[in-house]
Amino acid sequence: MDSQEILQIKNQLAKAEYESNLRVVSQKKPKIPVVLFFGRDNFSDNSKYLYLDACRNNYGFQPIWCSYNSVLVKQLLELNLNALDLNVNLAKNIALLIKVPLCVFSISPNESLRISTYKAALAGAQKVQLWHGVGTKQLDLALTDKGDMGNPTFVNQLVESSSIDYILSPAKTWDRQWREFFGVRKIIRAGMPRNEVLTRQPFEHELLGSYKKVFKSPDAFKILWAPTYTFIGDSAHWMNQTIYEKIKAPFVKRKIKVELIIKPHPYDNRFEEENKNNPLIISSEPDIYPYLNQVDLLITDKSSIFTDFLHCNKPIVFIKNNKLQETDQDNIFMNQLPGLEIELGSIDVAIEQVLTQDAFDGIRQALRSVAFDTHAGGACKEINSYFAQLVPELVAN
């Protein structure tokens, strides 16, 4: 072992000791009425809408958006909204984090925090997971029989995803699923915050992080194709020009003006460079939700966006995807989908049926009533009001 290797080991041990001490400090440090909100690298998803509601209304705690996106942080600060840049002033950030009683996530805390030092600094905080929708896919702890439990990276992922105290569950039907996925027992019952904007016009700040415009033709039949992620090594089926023509064919036959837009999954941003000149494909990152209620037909292969789209009560076509790790039969969508499921090569047949007769209207409404126990329009107020009671208790303790 050379001197460089010895130094590296010493540094690792020193870092581990420092973070162990930091966790103790965080757990002992008295808390202040602050709630931290973490999201994706862009400004989107459930935590975005919950944070902005907390900024518009006084719930008795200070909301702060935390991000490694320095441009976004600067934009929020210029709007007089509280935001923290995680890239700079590490010591100052840690001094704040150890005083925080509650933090909110929409994706895995590991993805949001990135570095172990920040995780240690939040050891004394309670953690709320809003997640990004409900659907049919299996996640995390439900995959231990299928994943490689001898792989330290996989096990670390399980630890990070299950290191939460509360989960948002929009209906009783999902409660057991959250326990199986994340090992969490404390439930917050409310709608998904990102669904609020489907029931009303977006507020001004809710357009931050979203597209400037999605659809160009107000009088066209609008189709959004929102696939789930493409598995590594597979080709992206949503890049097929022949499929575009199949989707449009029923409209051409009827002389109906149609506009097709494809929004890839955020994990598919590796395809962006080769699609930069494709006018149908929009960036995978910006927030689509302020425009989702403009869509007349959603095409997806069971991305969780389809459950949110139930609030719009418009047709959905599902493309079969046999690679998805789907949940058991207790999932309400395993026995009945709110739309026709079909092979991609027969997508024109499914669209023909949609244009001829919307046979799933009643099914969509029935499934929405089971998938969501509360009204989407009151989600943010319900959750932040819950925080308004929880934060003083955590501060007092």
The CATH architecture category of the largest domain equals 3-Layer(aba) Sandwich
Q: What count of helical segments does DSSP give?
A: 14
Overall outline: globular
Main beta-sheet annotation: 7 strands, parallel
Fraction of residues in helix: 25-40%
CATH class of the largest domain, anyone? Alpha Beta
Strand order, biggest sheet? Answer: 3-2-1-4-5-6-7
Strand % is 5-15%
From the alpha carbons, calculate the radius of gyration and give it in angstroms: 22 Å
Q: How far is the N terminus from the C terminus?
A: 48 Å
Q: For the residues shown, what is the average pLDDT?
A: 90
Please tally the β strands and state the result.
12
What number of domains?
2
CATH superfamily of the largest domain: CDP-glycerol glycerophosphotransferase, N-terminal domain
Instruction: Please write the string of helix (H) and strand (E) elements.
Output: HEHEHEHEHHEHEHEEHEEHEHEHHH
**CATH topology type of the largest domain:** Rossmann fold
Notable traits:
397 residues, alpha/beta, Rossmann fold, 2 domains, seven-stranded parallel β-sheet, five-stranded parallel β-sheet, 14 helices, 37% helix
Please provide a written account of the structure.
With about 400 residues, the chain is of the alpha/beta class. It folds into 2 domains: about 25-200 and about 375-395, CDP-glycerol glycerophosphotransferase, N-terminal domain (Rossmann fold, 3-Layer(aba) Sandwich), CATH 3.40.50; about 220-375, Glycogen Phosphorylase B (Rossmann fold). The chain is about 35% helix and about 15% strand. The chain has 14 helices and 12 strands. A 7-stranded parallel β-sheet has the order 3-2-1-4-5-6-7. Helix 7 (about 150-160) links the parallel strand 5 and strand 6 (about 165-170). It starts with a helix and ends with a helix.
